[in-house]
């Protein structure tokens, strides 16, 4: 099956160019839905998604030819699921989408399954802070890119962290508090096809993420995990997706690899964020976005194996909050052996902030080299050559 696809995306997304390129390469016509009447950052004019997901009122004529609905990032997962349900099209079930958008709902859904997850508690503003022991981690019930995620090593730090997160997301927000899970962190990318989990990639995160904040920096491929550990991660992810009845579409998950089984930190019914998908090169020549569209449109999936060459991406974060003045050194970074691209996405004059107060990156740096060590060295050298000026 092929036809017109509805891409659901917020105006702030990084993901529009990659999905529009994928549609063009596949010869797929596009209608877009967005969260603002001003439309998306690039591409054709869009329909406000509230007109499509509300479940009432007439549908715009442009929707009549749509045969698939794809949410491109975290904010569009739930609207896309609701739109697909309203149109009677195959998509992520609304309840499954809700479970991946609400971290508290996800924790509840996994209770009693025996799957490894942190000890947790919901913390409403009219109740005392929960006692899970220390260290623990406070986070909003929804969000991505480590926005609002703070480690606390004492009750005083927990209270301060809770107040800070509520300033970010709203004073009456119910927060999630989890026991801190030590150990390295990894990310997993997969597709689910008719209930079957199809692993695409396991990303190593070579830099420690110990807190108190958790801004991600480097993702690397292929993973250096032993095969048995990779299989264990995939088994836990498969069981978690089944537990919330997530049977279709892209999956992005985060795990901690402490003692014992891999611990599920987060599960999202979307693909990897930012521009990071560009580091993934499949033997078929397809991009990740093309695979997602092929599945949504009922097209045959090609070889899902990645190219073997080590690769990595650096997510460039601001060192402090303020107004971005400039990012210098791009040409120097591009001359570093192994660096393939330096994609600066933040514009001078924009307000920026590092995690936990911000959820936007300044840009993305991509590298390929003969070994994981050379990839990491290239990315670190590129980071050192980029000079970011932010004025308070």
Give the arrangement of secondary structure elements.
Layout: E1 4-8, H1 16-26, E2 30-34, E3 46-48, H2 50-53, E4 66-71, H3 77-87, H4 94-101, H5 103-110, E5 120-123, E6 136-139, E7 150-152, H6 155-169, E8 175-179, E9 185-193, E10 196-204, E11 218-221, H7 227-243, E12 249-256, E13 263-268, H8 288-296, E14 311-316, E15 322-328, H9 330-334, E16 339-344, E17 351-352, E18 363-368, H10 372-385, E19 387-391
Parallel strand pairs: 1-2, 1-4, 2-3
Antiparallel strand pairs: 5-8, 6-7, 6-8, 9-10, 9-12, 11-14, 12-13, 14-18, 15-17, 15-19, 16-18
Shape: globular
Q: What's the gyration radius in Å?
A: 21 Å
Structural class: alpha+beta
The total of beta strands comes to 19
CATH architecture of the domain at 4-100: 3-Layer(aba) Sandwich
What fraction strand? 25-35%
According to CATH, what is the topology of the domain at 4-100? Rossmann fold
Q: What is the overall pLDDT average?
A: 95
Low-confidence stretches: none
Order of helices and strands: EHEEHEHHHEEEHEEEEHEEHEEHEEEHE
Structure commentary:
The chain is of the alpha+beta class and 392 residues long. Among the domains are: 4-100, Rossmann fold (3-Layer(aba) Sandwich); 119-179, Dna Ligase, domain 1, CATH 3.30.1490.20; 309-392, Alpha-Beta Complex (Aldehyde Oxidoreductase, domain 3), CATH 3.90.1170. It has 10 helices and 19 strands. β9 and β10 (196-204) form a beta hairpin. The relative contact order is 0.13.
């Amino acid at each position: 099956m092929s036809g017109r696809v509805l891409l659901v995306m917020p105006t702030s997304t990084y993901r529009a160019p990659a999905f529009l390129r994928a549609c063009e390469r596949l010869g797929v016509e596009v209608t877009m839905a967005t969260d603002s009447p001003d439309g998306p950052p690039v591409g054709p004019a869009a329909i406000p998604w509230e007109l499509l997901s509300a479940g009432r009122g007439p549908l715009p004529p442009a929707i009549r030819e749509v045969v698939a609905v794809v949410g491109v990032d975290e904010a569009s997962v739930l609207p896309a699921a609701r739109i697909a349900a309203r149109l009677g099209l195959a998509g992520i079930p609304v309840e499954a989408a809700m479970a991946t958008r609400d971290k508290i709902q996800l924790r509840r859904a996994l209770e009693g399954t025996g799957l490894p997850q942190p000890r947790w508690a919901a913390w409403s503003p009219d109740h005392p802070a929960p006692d899970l022991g220390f260290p623990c981690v406070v986070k909003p019930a929804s969000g991505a890119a480590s926005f609002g995620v703070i480690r606390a090593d004492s009750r005083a730090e927990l209270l301060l962290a809770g107040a800070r997160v509520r300033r970010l997301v709203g004073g009456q927000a119910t927060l999630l508090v989890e026991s801190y899970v030590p150990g390295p962190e990894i990310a997993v990318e997969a597709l689910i096809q008719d209930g079957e989990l199809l692993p695409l990639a396991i990303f190593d995160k070579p830099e420690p993420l110990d807190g108190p904040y958790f801004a991600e920096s480097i993702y690397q491929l292929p993973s250096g995990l032993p095969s048995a550990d990779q299989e264990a991660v995939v088994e836990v992810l498969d069981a978690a997706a089944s537990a919330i009845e997530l049977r279709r579409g892209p999956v992005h998950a985060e795990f901690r690899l402490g003692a014992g089984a891999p611990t599920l930190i987060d599960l999202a019914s979307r693909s990897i964020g930012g521009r990071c998908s560009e580091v993934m090169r499949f033997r078929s020549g397809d991009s990740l976005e093309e695979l997602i569209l092929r599945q949504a449109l009922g097209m045959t999936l090609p070889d899902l194996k990645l190219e073997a060459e080590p690769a990595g991406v650096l997510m460039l974060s601001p060192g402090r909050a303020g107004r971005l003045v400039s990012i210098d050194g791009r040409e120097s970074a591009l001359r570093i052996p192994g660096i393939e691209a330096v994609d600066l996405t933040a514009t001078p004059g924009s307000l920026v902030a590092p995690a936990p107060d911000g959820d936007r990156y300044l840009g993305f740096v991509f590298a390929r080299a003969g070994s994981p060590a050379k990839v990491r060295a290239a990315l670190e050298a590129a980071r050192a050559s980029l000079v970011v000026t932010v004025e308070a």
